[in-house]
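Example record used in the benchmark description.
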Amino acid sequence: MSIHEIADNLALKLIREQQRRLSELIGTNVPESNPALVRFKPAKGRKTQLAEKGESHELYDVRNITQFYLEETNGRLAIVGGAGSGKTVCAMLLIVGLLKSRTIRSSDPNDAASAPVPIFASLTGWDAEEPFEAWLSEILVHRHGLSRDQADSLVAAGAILPVLDDLDSIEPQNGDGSRGRKAVRLINKYLGSALDGKIVVMCRSGGRHERLVAEIRHAHQVVLQPLAAMTVRTYIEDQCPDPLSQDDWKPVLQKLRGKAGNQVLEALGTPWRLTAAMTYYRNGGDPSQLLPSAQERGSGAAAYVSRVKETLFISFVNARVQLYSNRKYTATFVSTQLGVLAKHLDFMSRNSASGTDIVLHEWWEGAERKLIRRQHIWLTYAFAAVALTSAVRFDAAHVGLSGWRDYTAVLATIFMFRFAIVAAVQRDQPPVIARLSSLRHSRKARTILFTGIAGAIFIGVSGAIAYGFVYATALSLAVLAAAFLVAVRVPSDALVAGPLEPIRRDFWYNVLSGLAIGTMLGLAYAKTYNPVWGIFIGAANGIGWLLASSSCRYAFALAFTVRYRLGAFLNWAHTAGIMRVSGVSYQFRHAELQEFHTPPVPVTPKQTPGSRRARLVSLFASRSFRQERSHADV
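Model output (structure tokens):
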């Protein structure tokens, strides 16, 4: 398959995924594609072609970001804006627009081939210790299911357009700025070496962050503008066209028209908060409660904005709980678990890992990672040791042990178990699945298989001399099966779509592998000694193989942390629109929602029943819908 065919297939897969993600990002109670009218303008000192012709006032609608990128930039764009200003929505609109443009031009192979495929990624998952192109290839492999060779070829040919979020988050909060500068140097090195290198980055506005953006070579910088009062009014009127709804919003609309509208605009003036305000209203909320009280007007905007954000975000979560009601998940439980997830992501971001992606098989890498790894090793080994010592407890005559050779075999098996278990568990391997094609493409896989064949022949010959033909045959087949299963296994997350599939496939791969190896070893020992000994040996090997897997590491992590089915909860939260899916990871639907649920550092004590947050959760959870679902679909 040529590079152009690989790129075309990737683009077709992405266009559906990104359209769904865009609708999840900007929707209210139903999927829709009508974001608030955010505008942007080129950074100070930048002149566009339209402006030079006198055809533009250099203020652009974000819905025209694709046209601006294609006509006004050299393929390198930096999008700068405040928190919640719409940077991610802008990036999603650009990605969907570029993918559609590429699809339209696909009838002309030369034209389509020149259009790179846009790939969205968060820079919080990059530690700036490896080359940028190597990290980009990892994204293509682990998030989009490409082989290593395909990913490397696309990156080297300039067929990928990286769309990078969170440039401002790549530097730790207590960092000295060196990591951010190093990351920009690596990005510039990639742009200089890539064929016609293109890139899009998003970054929060601010002194240190904007200096990083300015250092990206030849990037055209645009600044997202705060929503104007007229824009907010227009959005509310469009979402609530009927007279009854407009009467409900009348106090807010009047305030936005007056001189005191700046304070309301500060509370509602981001695309995400406007979306949350619509959800709050459709869930029975009173828009007049979004206005500042007399005390808040006198004490400044900070307390008022904080109250509005808390009201909107709690209402949003409770609205999703009511719409997708589940007996297992109450509003209070969901709010608590979102706090746990946000705390986990905060820890990961402080430790050079992604602060936005929840990958199930990497959940154990949180604050308790050392304890989880240690307990996983010892519990796995304890099972194997118990199985073997239970067999040895039978007297020699009953089991059939006689002579130094038999006892040496038992001791060697015990030490082999300990070595194999520690080696297997400490590797922290990702979820795996069997793929025969790895024997054709991977020299390492062929080496493992040939080594296993040689070992099986040696064990078969020596075992036949010492213990007989049956024992030697079964044992050599077990060694051969183990070598084959190790040779053909590949990371599962590179081949599946969906966050839960890697864990599921890893579990069944290890169940079937353990069953095959355990059965053959059990037969070998049963024929040589007796059935009881064979059962113990087979169980120790088969179940031990499963216990050393990534899926069991995930189970250990849940047992030591959240103590409930995390995957099922995240799948429900995605269905409810609280989380979104990106490749094999879950993410909060919006960064502001994640920030709201992130506890401060150091973590404050658990909220008491009488706290304001608890009262709001209880209040909104007990409310019924104000309007029928048909009204919510307006």
